[in-house]
Amino acid sequence: MNKGFFVTFEGGDGAGKSTQIHLLKEYLQEQGCDVLLTREPGGTQISEKIRGILLDPQNGEMEPQTELMLYAAARAQLVAEVIQPALQAGTIVICDRFLDSSLAYQAYGRNLGEAVLQVNQYAVRGCMPDVTIYLRVAPETGRQRIGTREQDRIESESEQFHRRVYEGYEALARIYPERIVTVDAAGTIEEIEQTIRAEVMNRIHAVSGGNRK
Q1: What stretch of H or E contains 96?
Q2: In what helix (H) or strand (E) does residue 186 lie, and over which residues does it extend?
Q3: Do residues 139 and 111 touch, judged by C-beta distance below 8 A?
Q4: DSSP code of 73?
Q5: How far, CA to CA in Å, does 200 sit from each of 6, 93, 187, 213?
Q6: Were both Cys, which of 3, 23, 123, 130 would link to 76 (CB 3.0–4.6 Å)?
Q7: CA geometry: angle at 211 spanning 130 and 8, to 5°?
Q8: What are the CA-CA distances from residue 28 to residues 40, 93, 136, 149, 184 (Å)?
Q9: What is the DSSP letter of 91?
Q10: Backbone φ, ψ for residue 184 (5° rounding)
Q11: CA 32 from chain center: how many Å?
């Protein structure tokens, strides 16, 4: 496959993304695939510095518009420095969050509307996922899973905010059904893993003409 394949994982806090991302990476590597794992915000030296600003609980006075542009700036750097070169080299890229997170958290959670998509379309320069795995979890359940561990600036937002984020993800799944695969995060780790594996492999085979294992 000359062109790589771009997989993103989305979902509210406590959805279990990290576990499933690593399981998928391990499986794909076992199949002989070249896999790159990255995250948002972060993934480059510059983007990780922006991540620190965005998630620091001491930055509670941050304006929603500032938050939007900082996420977009981190994303632009990640796309240019990591994601696009890897895809051009034929690598499978798995990213923990991407543009859909900004749509859910800023467009819906912060009520910033259409400006979020416009800013982020400029940031990603046409680099969009081949498939997005949306792990659906009710915000109340997600917060229970997080438990008493220390929370970052976004995680510590109000229940109303996280409800809007959830509703945003649900809306995005309806708007982009050809790209976004909704997976019930209430299932067992094994059930979720099998569902994700099947979806991703079917799509990889579809774009590669069956040349990949």
Answers
A1: strand 92-96
A2: none
A3: no
A4: H
A5: 10, 12, 18, 12
A6: 123
A7: 20
A8: 21, 11, 23, 31, 22
A9: P
A10: -70, 115
A11: 24
